């Protein structure tokens, strides 16, 4: 299995000090920065767009992991690539032609990820899996931080790991020290965590507690 990476989601950080928050989690050992983009249409919330990614890029020495929860990903992937995204993930539910978007993301020099909502079966990506750098399995429904981990997703993680071999399998939503152990055992290797990390005083201890023991 590829190495375990922790990707703090800045959705739970103090938006009035975004640059400082990004630096603080990187100093605390973050392996990536996870950026949740929502358009108020695909997901029932509105967050931020490429301009914020451009501003944060200069504060980041680790990969920028952009999670697009938007209805028309094809229209915006170029903007996010230009903003400095390293990985761009979009929802399979948002398009009839995922391969076209995957190809576009790669052409732009980024890694391409596909995201599955909790209600979407892994079979939906079975025949395109060979083209993807990463699969992101939502372990809550998109929209907000602080929701409870959906235990049924453990089975999906196991199946997606079998599909992806040694490529990245990311999980997002309700990750804390206890669900982290479960998802790692099931085969996830990239763990997004928002409220669990940013609600703790020590970001270092929070991030360390998500990594496997030993
Ligand atoms: C949810 C977002 C997540 C969110 C996770 O729509 O995709 O990345 O920030 O937040 P927590 O870790 O608080 O569940
Ligand atoms: Zn996310």
Strand content: 15-25%
Average pLDDT reading = 98
At the fourth level of CATH, the homologous superfamily is: Aldolase class I
Runs in which pLDDT lies below 50 for 5 or more consecutive residues are none
Distinct bound molecules: D-xylitol-5-phosphate, zinc ion
Number of helices: 8
Per CATH, the architecture is Alpha-Beta Barrel
Reading off the top of the CATH hierarchy, the class is best stated as Alpha Beta
What is the total domain count?
Answer: 1
Q: What strand order characterises the main sheet?
A: 1-8-7-6-5-4-3-2
Order of helices and strands: EHEHEHEHEEHEHEHH
The total count of strands amounts to 8
N- to C-terminal separation?
16 Å
Share in helix:
25-40%
Structural class, by secondary structure, is alpha/beta
CATH fold node name? TIM Barrel
Radius of gyration (CA) equals 16 Å
Please give a structural write-up.
This protein is α/β, with parallel strands linked by helices. It is built from eight helices and eight strands. The chain has helices at 18-27, 50-57, 77-82, 98-107, 153-164, 177-186, 195-198, 203-208, and strands at residues 5-8, 33-38, 64-69, 87-91, 111-116, 134-138, 168-172, 190-193. It has an eight-stranded parallel sheet. The longest helix is centred in the last third of the chain and has 12 residues, at 153-164. The radius of gyration is 16 Å and the shape is globular. The mean pLDDT is 98.
């Amino acid at each position: 299995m590829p190495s375990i990476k922790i990707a703090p989601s800045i959705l739970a950080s103090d938006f009035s000090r975004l640059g400082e928050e990004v630096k603080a989690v990187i100093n605390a050992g973050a392996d990536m920065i996870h950026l949740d983009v929502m358009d108020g249409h695909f997901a029932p919330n509105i967050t931020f767009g490429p301009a914020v990614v451009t501003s944060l890029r200069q504060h980041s020495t680790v990969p920028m992991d952009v999670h697009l929860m938007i209805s028309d990903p094809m229209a915006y992937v170029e903007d996010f690539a230009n903003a400095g995204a390293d990985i761009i993930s979009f929802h399979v539910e948002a398009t009839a032609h995922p391969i076209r978007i995957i190809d576009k993301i790669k052409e732009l020099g980024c890694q391409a990820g596909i995201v599955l909502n909790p209600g979407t079966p892994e079979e939906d990506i079975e025949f395109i899996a060979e083209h993807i750098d990463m699969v992101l399995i939502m372990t809550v429904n998109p929209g907000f931080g602080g929701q409870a981990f959906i235990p049924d997703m453990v089975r999906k993680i196991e199946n997606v790991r079998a599909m992806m071999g040694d490529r990245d399998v990311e999980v997002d939503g309700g990750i804390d020290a206890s669900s982290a152990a479960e998802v790692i055992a099931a085969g996830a290797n990239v763990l997004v965590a928002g409220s669990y990390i940013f609600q703790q005083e020590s970001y270092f201890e929070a991030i360390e507690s998500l990594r496997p023991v030993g």
